[in-house]
Amino acid sequence: MTSKDSKTTSDRIVTRPDLKELARHLGLSQTTVSRVLSGSAKNHRISSETEQRVLAAAAKLNYKANVLARSLRSKRSKTVGVMVPEISEGYSTAVLGGIEEVLLLSGFFYFVVSHRHRTDLLREYPSLLLSRAVDGIIAVDSTIEEDLPIPVVAVSDHHHRPSVVNIELDHLLAARYALDHLTRLQHREIAFIKGQSFSSDTLARWRAICKVAAELGIEINPRLVIQLEDHGLGTEPGRTATIALLERDVRFTAIFAFNDLAAIGAITVLREAGIQVPAQVSVVGFDDILSAATNNPPLTTVRQPLQEMGRVAASTLLQMIHTEKQDWSTHPIRLLPTFVERQSTAWAPQASEAAFSDSAHPHKESNLQGN
Amino acid sequence: MTSKDSKTTSDRIVTRPDLKELARHLGLSQTTVSRVLSGSAKNHRISSETEQRVLAAAAKLNYKANVLARSLRSKRSKTVGVMVPEISEGYSTAVLGGIEEVLLLSGFFYFVVSHRHRTDLLREYPSLLLSRAVDGIIAVDSTIEEDLPIPVVAVSDHHHRPSVVNIELDHLLAARYALDHLTRLQHREIAFIKGQSFSSDTLARWRAICKVAAELGIEINPRLVIQLEDHGLGTEPGRTATIALLERDVRFTAIFAFNDLAAIGAITVLREAGIQVPAQVSVVGFDDILSAATNNPPLTTVRQPLQEMGRVAASTLLQMIHTEKQDWSTHPIRLLPTFVERQSTAWAPQASEAAFSDSAHPHKESNLQGN
DNA sequence: CTGAAAGCGCTTACAG
DNA sequence: CTGAAAGCGCTTACAG
Fold first, then answer.
1. Which residues contact A80 (CB under 8 A, 6 or more apart)?
2. Which residue positions does the secretion signal occupy (chains A, B) (predicted)?
3. pLDDT, tens digit (0-9, with 9 covering 90-100), for B79-112
4. Are the beta carbons of B9 and A290 separated by less than 8 Å?
5. Does residue B9 belong to any structural domain of this protein?
6. Domain tally, chain B
7. What is the rounded distance in angstroms from the CA atom of residue B78 to the CA atom of residue B318?
8. Which of A81, A359, B86, B101 could form a disulfide with A134 if both were Cys (CB 3.0 to 4.6 A apart)?
9. In terms of domains, do B47 and B129 share one?
10. Which phi and psi angles does B334 have, rounded to 5°?
């Protein structure tokens, strides 16, 4: 026993033997003990009696292999890196929840790094993770530019490349849910809040909207399309966009927002402008974050299966890690959204009662300024 | 150059030399190169010319030390473990954001593990993190039972022990903010929603409330005290508790909830019961999560500086790691809450003023007198 | 069925 | 100012 270390402040401190000590204790070679403990006993036809003895001793002496040493030698660290834009943000953490669930069941640990849309960090992190010997990387809403010598799974990225497997939402179905819903409620003048330029989903989702709008015969008025600014936190970008939208003074009866945060921001701005939701303007969100249900009015929204996307990302990555294959130019794995109908949408108002009828102009600018 | 590996699918794959190759390339020993690269050049009086050459070559050849090998040898991994109850939950991720900010600036990476209040995981994780050779652990709202041979910082734990430094909120100040606010608004019949039994903060916060209530002469009616159930997600526990509270049929004019989620749940239940917030019942939350501001009505709440608590936790842990000291029986580090007054609180309803024979107006006492 | 020895890629006494 | 050699704690050819 190595017991010359640490002035024990409590006898509950765990003393751990290393492999050498364990082997000596058992009167076996490190090789044999290692084989049993790393689960390759079968391949070496180790007698089950020996196997049992080793297992029992390991448990009794509380042996835990030094993962560093094991990884260094075996070239597999059972560690993956997860890149997210922002750790303290609902989207990433929902995905992270799913990732963790799968990873930890397989004995994998993960490093989280968040780049906050800083391009220098986006460039550096894959390299830093590599020097930490991760077996693979999951990029959540983050684009990795260089090809890496390890498997990569991207959640909601849309740069298809051979070395990366993409997990994406079925954007067409998502757009169909929302636009079909609004169309049935007789909305024709629909405003769109596009996502931030840095979000991987922005373009794909917008393309899907355009395509579905064409199918449904909805005309998209460019003056009713506005994009979230890159800066600002929480509901702020949605507020800013909606204020700008109102200033254009073009009539609309519904808004399809890029995400719930933007939808919630939009609703607060509309309310401040004296416009009722959903009586005068309907609002559809995206994601179904927690606040969507508790918002007033509760948000009608397209739900992304974020946890599920995380789970699929993780299990796909594990598969890739456990295989020799090099080329992963498969089709993206596409998950399905669901539609959650709550109270932020309603029938399109009659022209006379609409917020933008000529009589009732929405310009209550005093409320909108100064924020 | 080791270039026999990997059928390069793209020439952008990063080839990295190891220390040996770098040393050979420079005509120097691994020892010298290692010294320069690990920053101990000064201690060994390495000529600045040599130093510059090494640095230049390392940059040019894109040398990155294998962190596994370095850690195995040096016994310091520049990695910490962070234990949280739940990854996809606002409280933990806010703290995590602060932790990350500090850690990554120092070149530290972190593993996240979430135990979801499972006692088996709570017991195992410290050990598993240890076998991953972490230099220290931050436990967020999680109690670590055994003494560990590495530094530990606990955010919002209240088991004071020598080997652990605690980061906590000033619960007395928090209670004072809330109760003082309600008292001034003439509330006397206040209901309290206590936290889940598994939350480290539940007891400390409740004690502070009792103490401050005594100071302010507020009587706590046991029939107006209810505790959040351990199961249920989001606003569900708050809803359940409030429903049970209403069933007791004891009059109250205000609720002080354990957290914002519970407060939001309470408000939805009150609304469904036809009780107006804040006209008939005022509600005060705790935490100031994102939804607090966007809720309807926007929540009056005690804000915890969660990011800051994370930052302090991380920098404290780094200090502990970089020192030899063994005994950390310091006082806990106490951070200050702030009070955010929004629209979920208002004057106690008229009926209650009539019921109590006192004056119609609250005493405008100066801020937070006493301590 | 089991073991002795080499080696993963670094850092660190020890030596000069 | 610089280097040769040992060693961190494992796994893995190689051998029998």
1. A103, A108, A109, A110, A111, A134, A135, A136, A137, A138, A314, A317, A321
2. none
3. 999 999 998 777 899 999 999 999 999 999 999 9
4. no
5. no
6. 3
7. 9
8. A81
9. no
10. -110, 125
CATH code, B318: 3.40.50.2300
Across the interface, of A90, A104, A111, the residue whose CB is closest to B109 is A111
Domain identity same for B102 and B28: no
Is B238 within the bounds of a domain? Answer: yes
The residues, ordered by sequence, that sit 6+ positions from A74 with a Cβ below 8 Å of its Cβ are none
Q: Provide the CA A78 to C1' D14 distance, Å, integer.
A: 27
Whether any strand D atom is under 7 angstroms from the Cβ of A47: the reply reads: no
Per-residue pLDDT tens over the stretch A298-346: 999 999 999 999 999 999 999 999 987 767 777 889 999 999 999 999 9
Q: What's the DSSP call for residue B44?
A: G
Task: Please say whether the dihedral angle defined by the alpha carbons of residues B338, B344, B350 and B351, taken in this order, is positive or negative.
Answer: negative
Per the structure, the complete domain to which residue B46 belongs is given by 19-65
- Domain identity same for A27 and A145: no
Question: Comparing B302 with B62, which gets the higher pLDDT?
Answer: B302
Same domain, A230 and A351: yes
B366 pLDDT more than 50: no
Q: Which residue has the higher pLDDT, A296 or A308?
A: A308
Q: Do A112 and B112 touch (CB under 8 A)?
A: yes
Q: How many CB atoms lie within 10 A of CB B201?
A: 23
Which two structure tokens, joined as six digits, stand for A301?
């929204």
pLDDT at A129 over 50: yes
- The CATH number for A56's domain is 1.10.260
Tell me, yes or no, whether A328 and A279 share the same domain. Answer: no
Answer yes or no: is pLDDT of B178 > 70.
Answer: yes
Whether residues A153 and A300 share a domain: the answer is no
Position B354 pLDDT exceeds 90: no
